[in-house]
Every structure is written in C-alpha cells, then in structure tokens.
Amino acid sequence: GAGVSQSPSNKVTEKGKDVELRCDPISGHTALYWYRQRLGQGLEFLIYFQGNSAPDKSGLPSDRFSAERTGESVSTLTIQRTQQEDSAVYLCASSRGGVSNQPQHFGDGTRLSIL
Amino acid sequence: AQSVTQPDIHITVSEGASLELRCNYSYGATPYLFWYVQSPGQGLQLLLKYFSGDTLVQGIKGFEAEFKRSQSSFNLRKPSVHWSDAAEYFCAVGARSSGDKLTFGTGTRLAVRP
User: Fold this and answer.
1) How is residue B55 annotated by DSSP?
2) Is-contact A74 A60, C-beta < 8 A?
3) Contact A105 B46 (CB under 8 A)
4) Strands (E), chain B
5) In chain B, which stretches have pLDDT less than 70?
6) B chain contacts of residue A57, beta-carbon cutoff 8 Å
7) Are B68 and B78 in contact (CB under 8 A)?
8) For the segment B44-54, what is each residue's pLDDT rounded down to a tens digit?
9) CA spacing 20 to 30 A to A88: which of A7, A15, B38, B111?
10) Closest to A17 in 3D by CA, of A67, A87, A72, A68
C-alpha cells in the first residue's frame, strides 16, 4: 500500500494478557518509530529502528514492552502481562532516512483497551 | 533535554476567521520543526516542516508557520479557517543530535463554529 499500515485497528484484552501490534511501513523507508498516545495527551516515543543498526529503546516504559523489526519491513510491538495503564493508541511511523529532517509518515494507530 | 510547549489546549474559532496556534520549544541546537494534524481516529498527517532557510514555511491546506529563533517559537497560522480544519494539532521538534527522535507537544484541539 501507499501508506503506513497498522493492525489491528482496535484491540480489547484482559489485564495480564500479552498483545502483539503490527506495523507495515512504507516501502523503502529505512526508519521506523513506535509512539504511544494516551487519551488527551501528546505522543510519547517508545522505540526507533534504523536499518540494521541497534534499535533505540530508550522510550520503552518497562521490560514488559519489546519490539522487533525484520530488516526494513514489518515491525511488531509486544506488550506482555498488560496493565490498565497500557490502554492507549499505539502509533507507528516510518521515514525515508534516519535523520530528523525526513518527515515521518504515520499509520492510523492501534487503539488498545485493557479491561 | 528538548521540550515542546503548546500553551493552548483547546481553541474555538468561527469559520472564516484567522487562526494562530502557538508552539514554543526548548532546545540547544538548531532544531527541525514540524506541525502535524490528527483527525479523530486517524494517524498524524504532516502539515509543514522547517529545516533551514526561509523562516516562513508554507504547508498543505493553506497553513503556514514562522520560525522565530529569538522567541523559540514556531506558530502555525491560517488566514481563513474552514469547518474541515477542526482537528488536533501537534507541534514537534527533532534534531540529529537527539538521535532522530521527535518530541511532541501535548496538542491543541481546534473547534470551528459555523
């Protein structure tokens, strides 16, 4: 597709369950970002992948959060033992290069609700 | 650490009126600055960006923004607002030295009166 694709668009799960969120970046984009957006708040950086470099995980809030990316394609964000405070919209973005002067293109997000 | 402040949480304007959304940043180096718009249930769409050069940048949908280094500001403007502009607007700052991460403001929600 032409844009960043995220799935599922909505996910409702019980506290304590693991969830996996998927992001398909724009073809040819080497950089991929994950953000969390809590209700009424701005975007909180989680993790950044650039090519084959080690990812920048400095934004991950706890060791329950992890992410992987296969080459320059799909990425998955995994949250283990979900808590109610994990409820948020998780946004993925990709960009052509790894420098900040390349604009990031966002997917529509996955709305995660923890019961 | 870099930070972005959007002092107005919620703004309401009448259709056809002019608009200015404020953004102030705190950053030691020359930043890259962005404005994004988010409609309900959707991701963020880039409106415009500033990297260097002319401090007045034009974006999509009739928006423009002006970088004022002395005021550490990057305010978004539109001369005549349309009802379809109702959305949430985010200012963001990034720099190579920050590891290519963007720091976002908390957003300004724009409502448009008919």
Assistant:
1) S
2) no
3) yes
4) 3-5, 10-14, 19-21, 24-26, 32-38, 44-50, 56-58, 64-68, 73-78, 87-94, 102-104, 108-113
5) 28, 96-100
6) none
7) no
8) 899 999 988 88
9) B111
10) A87
